[in-house]
Specification:
Layout lengths: L1 H24 L5 H4 L3 H26 L13 H23 L4 H11 L3 H31 L8 H16 L2
Length: about 170
């Protein structure tokens, strides 16, 4: 019985990951999405991600796999914190697009990336964005920075500096 519950959890996880992929790669080509204004397009995508995140959170809670993460006690108020954080992230993303408009380089990169096919699509979208970039970010931010700043760990400076550089890496790329 436990094995069947675990299989269902892994299938649900795979389905959620596939759905997340479809939100960003398939929905952008749909006719009604192309007809939307830029703001409505992003609002629609954010709503889809919010719904998906809520479903993922509920699936995680119902599966009770969170109990394996230690002494964590789940409370439904955490879902409220998640929704508030998501809303604040949405507001921040909209503010930064007005403060820092997309550069010509950024627009060209997006245009080229959307037209990729075959092996170039695999290398750029799958290999680089799913494996190489996250691993290198973790090695730099957590591995090198946090380790080198471990002497000031009790003041949380290692975490703050690492988070600031991680955030700057993502803001400055656009």
């Amino acid at each position: 019985m436990k094995k069947m519950k675990e299989v269902k959890f892994h299938l649900a996880t795979g389905l959620l990951i596939l759905t997340y992929y479809l939100i960003f790669n398939v929905t952008s080509d749909l006719d009604f999405m192309v007809a939307l204004s830029d703001n409505m397009y992003y609002v629609f995508q954010v709503l889809l991600v919010l719904i998906l995140g809520t479903i993922a959170t509920i699936a995680f809670v119902k599966s009770e796999h969170w109990k394996e993460c230690g002494r964590f006690q789940f409370r439904w108020s955490y879902l409220g914190v998640f929704l508030l954080s998501f809303f604040l992230l949405f507001v921040w993303a909209n503010l930064t697009t007005y403060i820092f408009p997309r550069t010509q380089n950024g627009s060209t990169v997006v245009e080229v990336a959307t037209n990729l096919t075959g092996i170039s699509y695999f290398v750029t979208r799958i290999l680089y964005t799913s494996i190489i970039a996250p691993v290198s970010e973790e090695v730099v931010c957590r591995g090198l920075l946090m380790t080198s700043l471990s002497k000031v760990k009790r003041y949380y400076l290692d975490v703050l500096v690492s988070a600031a550089i991680f955030g700057a890496m993502h803001v400055l790329q656009y």
